[in-house]
Amino acid sequence: MRVGILTGGGDCPGLNAVIRAVTKSLIRHGQCEVLGIEDGFQGLMEPLPRVQALDWQRVSGILHVGGTILGTSNSANPLRDAATLAQVGRNLAALNLDVVVVIGGDGTMSLAHGVAQATGVHCVGVPKTIDNDIAHCERSFGFDTAVTTAAEALRRLESTASSHHRVMIVETMGRHAGWLALEAGLAGAADVILLPEIDYDIEAVAAHCRAREQRQRYTIICMGEGAKARGAALTVREQVAGSPDPVRLGGVGHVLRMQLQPLLASEVRTTVLGHLQRGGDPTPFDRVLATRFGHHAAQLVVQRRFGQMATLQHGRIGSVPMAEVANVQRTVARGHELVTMARDIGVCLGD
Amino acid sequence: MRVGILTGGGDCPGLNAVIRAVTKSLIRHGQCEVLGIEDGFQGLMEPLPRVQALDWQRVSGILHVGGTILGTSNSANPLRDAATLAQVGRNLAALNLDVVVVIGGDGTMSLAHGVAQATGVHCVGVPKTIDNDIAHCERSFGFDTAVTTAAEALRRLESTASSHHRVMIVETMGRHAGWLALEAGLAGAADVILLPEIDYDIEAVAAHCRAREQRQRYTIICMGEGAKARGAALTVREQVAGSPDPVRLGGVGHVLRMQLQPLLASEVRTTVLGHLQRGGDPTPFDRVLATRFGHHAAQLVVQRRFGQMATLQHGRIGSVPMAEVANVQRTVARGHELVTMARDIGVCLGD
Amino acid sequence: MRVGILTGGGDCPGLNAVIRAVTKSLIRHGQCEVLGIEDGFQGLMEPLPRVQALDWQRVSGILHVGGTILGTSNSANPLRDAATLAQVGRNLAALNLDVVVVIGGDGTMSLAHGVAQATGVHCVGVPKTIDNDIAHCERSFGFDTAVTTAAEALRRLESTASSHHRVMIVETMGRHAGWLALEAGLAGAADVILLPEIDYDIEAVAAHCRAREQRQRYTIICMGEGAKARGAALTVREQVAGSPDPVRLGGVGHVLRMQLQPLLASEVRTTVLGHLQRGGDPTPFDRVLATRFGHHAAQLVVQRRFGQMATLQHGRIGSVPMAEVANVQRTVARGHELVTMARDIGVCLGD
Amino acid sequence: MRVGILTGGGDCPGLNAVIRAVTKSLIRHGQCEVLGIEDGFQGLMEPLPRVQALDWQRVSGILHVGGTILGTSNSANPLRDAATLAQVGRNLAALNLDVVVVIGGDGTMSLAHGVAQATGVHCVGVPKTIDNDIAHCERSFGFDTAVTTAAEALRRLESTASSHHRVMIVETMGRHAGWLALEAGLAGAADVILLPEIDYDIEAVAAHCRAREQRQRYTIICMGEGAKARGAALTVREQVAGSPDPVRLGGVGHVLRMQLQPLLASEVRTTVLGHLQRGGDPTPFDRVLATRFGHHAAQLVVQRRFGQMATLQHGRIGSVPMAEVANVQRTVARGHELVTMARDIGVCLGD
């Protein structure tokens, strides 16, 4: 079999571990040739496809390396017009690929589904998201690394917060789902955790900070970038996207600072973690999880279970149809165990 | 309610996170007073019980701190004789405790069960094991930290192995269960993983190393301390325990070195991780998991579901009767997904 | 002798190590009582002084902890008016302090000098600066930690830069001195390093990025917050300070992005490290260096060498008069060994 | 010019940073071709020399990578007999090398000096030692990384020591010089530090532990592998080397345990860090320092200052004749600032 692999969308710690596991599993299985497609779908959209042969040596030593050796693209859309799609089809035919293992988020799964239907190429999916928000997948690789990075940042900022008696706001990723802010906040001992799923009442947040001003004298706030104040029609991010000067904005954490500062005696400061959360080497947990996803994807390939995406459900690796996850998101329910737990140990959820 | 907490057996990263979550949850619930019992059951076996009050401030700032603020004991046995048990009973009565939250391994659970039956005190359990081998619990806190420590050691030793073209053996904990060696080996890209559950054939291990001598020129072996050569009646550890000079032995990894060196051209070296795996600050993953266990134990207390131990099964927190886990171990099945995966990506399991 | 200790200005990793070393050295020397003054000079400016006794146990276990157990203040100015200064004098008299060990930057040294002259209290100084820019001190504690944090951030962002073929800008601290940007850039393998001391030519920076677009396909830029474009009358920071909406600005790295994006084909992204650089636990190097400074300050106290500040010069601990360092800064000379070296290994300095 | 580079002796974090800096500096200087010699002098002793071309791309991305991309050898001795030396001479002639940059310890410098005299090849040296014991060099790259590894191990073991009220012994590298044990002990808050340079009195060590048993209830001992008890004719290491069964010995830390356990009530445990100290990625400090050494070596090459070795003295990079450092060691003087400081803050030095 000739198998292509591509990584699409934003990079994520553990991509190389998946590439390695897919490749090694297929080579050990035998009768497989593996090709890496460069820069996501972009590598299939150009007049000549850009690919590299993946053999045992090429994928050795990359288990713990962040990023993707194949490159990726956020913007490449193979479905953008008929000519592009036709080019993709010609390239797939020229490469003589039986199946493409697509590693990406819900957007990439959606594109893969479309390409498969239009060109007849077979696909197998591996979910990739820093935000841990892909449907039917309770934990995706890269998430533990992002939680670790954000939790360590929270701890690091606690030194300054407690020394200067300040309120420190840390903005994490998470436009639509608050998993990262929630777990990082719990792991980093945040006093306030604000999620996109639970609109915050600025007075409730301020009251919590003021209560702490009396005793602990500092407060750590962990805020997902999609969080918004109650009653606000748009998230801050959406407001900014429509403003004339979005580039000047450092991040929504700065907006919370503007809201909060007038209500408090302590100084309020903001740190936006941004790309630090995506980069870096995967944690050992993510290396194992990414290897499991990659290994399972290789099994889907050799068992010809096309159109399936590897998942983790109830602690077990399995698979679901790719179509089921395209453009669906897993968000934090208000009654989720972790939310209840956060409240029970005294964390303010902003409501 | 008056609630005692004790930590028994070997220390483990995340104990303080459990203590914090139990205490904060009970205080927030209201009408609870929390007492920390010092040095495990030892604190109940002396003429005067050794305890400390646990309030909100005492358990703040300990989430990420390794070890246990209460102290622990490996050897204290409240059931060792009638006088000791009677003393424990008097102390429990004097402290007027309604329930004791016992954080420990299968041995500690067994002791707690015995004490509960003899004295009538209620108990609630929280599983603790670096080895991840407690029955009915698919992942215990502290394990991720130990895997991380061991996997980083494997990576670190790879520098030297590849520069000097050596075979490096790393001995991890795990007398009866190979989970730690298995996950650390997978996360640290070990070439050979030897588990207590799969006796190794020294010739098979040597053959794998020799094949690598030709191409990669170095080999990393990750070995659980309970691993033994096929046909050996006793594990190396057991042999050593019966030998006249056990103290001189640095660890069973040194024995594998003696077996392997004559069969290879490369130099073979051993590193025994030992206590490094138990110590240190818990990873963010373990901080969250330990908090979940502690929070659930507090719920078991307030719901008066005594005799239950918190568990993680199928990705969810729940509980099982403590009696079911006492002296039962969860070991690695030969057909476990991770074992199959390891073989499929080219790892030698020694058989 | 009765000795006070205070920490002033921004917090810095290693402050607790200094406090510990001063205290332990004085206690071991004998006949010394040590008092910690809270929140810098603020603790002396209030109607009742805020202090805490420092004994052996209080300073045990803090060697590796970030921040300062005494608290600090950026804004407290004991010289702001006659009444304040008189209050400080009364408090010093009431506390019956023979000498105050002042741990702070050039601003704090200047205040200490003023307080000493006005009140007659003796002072001994310990230099503190994340920026490593105190005169007569070639390496201050906290700097190695900040370099480590920033260098790790550069590495982390390289994953994303290379996967997405982007230009990544990292803004470090350093308003007037570029030491942090320089060493972090060297340690983090930055391709471009921009310092406050060397105005950059945006075209030169763009040309370097474009040359890399052809081959390596990504560029990492490390930029001190005080860097400015050649010909600009004001640094970006100064411009912003005078603008009507400074709070919206995420940092000067965003301005470089705006300048650079139109000149390049690759996407340009910015990360502002901000407070992450000040916080966190000190590196082992900084723990030892801070201990040396603290130990030397204690020697200055017992030898009654008042008015001196501990320094590191030519690799040795020594001291200089505090007056010599007040309001003087050590900046990066264009011909400094590290600058020449950076150029010689192909780093673009922007000129 | 044709320039060879080789790395000899044990591996050390930062070797790749030196290789990168030498290579990039020479390429940027122009008119230089750089060849990497494989496995130290071994690559010159075989019938055909083993070398690889080093260009810009080959040395990119290795700054932070542990080990050496060229490989090394502990045992290769080009001076072992006339035939070998003649072969080395023929290979050097065949490769047409003008100069060889030799990165190694005092033994390697000695060999290089001998080869230079016998064959007429020019050499330039870069000092390499985990132990920081090369004469005329106050800080060598790799040392900071080793200190960091050992100090973190000390902290990690403190969790267990304090939870179980134990005495924990950590054995570090350092056969003849105690720099590593000393700085790691200081950075890791060891209570006892034992150096090869100061024979310890087991009673003094035990007395310190007993005093702590009363109050802190645990003790951390950091011990260099060359430390020996007062009055012992041989170090433990030397005794073991002459014993029939050295391979069974886990390390000299185990011997101290045997000496100490009978004198104490607390349990005593030992951890031998071994190869963990050599491996792993260099710290940012070591990346910069190694780059400085490499850059300076390249300058020595282009300035034809042959026979010189790069050094760091009084905080500055410079050079000394290689002959001066061959077989000379820098050890810890009893009156060294750090020793005095250790005593002054209450550390027991064993005497």
Automatic annotation (TrEMBL), chains A, B, C, D:
Q: What is this protein called?
A: ATP-dependent 6-phosphofructokinase
Q: In which pathway does it act?
A: Carbohydrate degradation; glycolysis; D-glyceraldehyde 3-phosphate and glycerone phosphate from D-glucose: step 3/4
Name the source organism. Answer: Comamonas flocculans
For the site labelled Important for substrate specificity, the residues are: G107
Any one GO BP annotation for this protein = canonical glycolysis
Compartment(s) where it occurs, according to its Swiss-Prot or TrEMBL record: Cytoplasm
* Protein residues bound to ATP: G10, G105, D106, G107, T108
- GO molecular function list: 6-phosphofructokinase activity; AMP binding; ATP binding; diphosphate-fructose-6-phosphate 1-phosphotransferase activity; fructose-6-phosphate binding; identical protein binding; metal ion binding; monosaccharide binding
EC number from the UniProt entry? 2.7.1.11
**A Pfam family name for this chain?**
PFK
What region holds the Phosphofructokinase domain?
A: 2-300
* Phylogenetic classification of the source organism: Bacteria, Pseudomonadati, Pseudomonadota, Betaproteobacteria, Burkholderiales
Tell me, what does this protein do in biology?
Catalyzes the phosphorylation of D-fructose 6-phosphate to fructose 1,6-bisphosphate by ATP, the first committing step of glycolysis.
Query: Under the cellular component aspect of Gene Ontology, which terms does the record hold?
Result: 6-phosphofructokinase complex
Q: Catalytic site residues?
A: D131
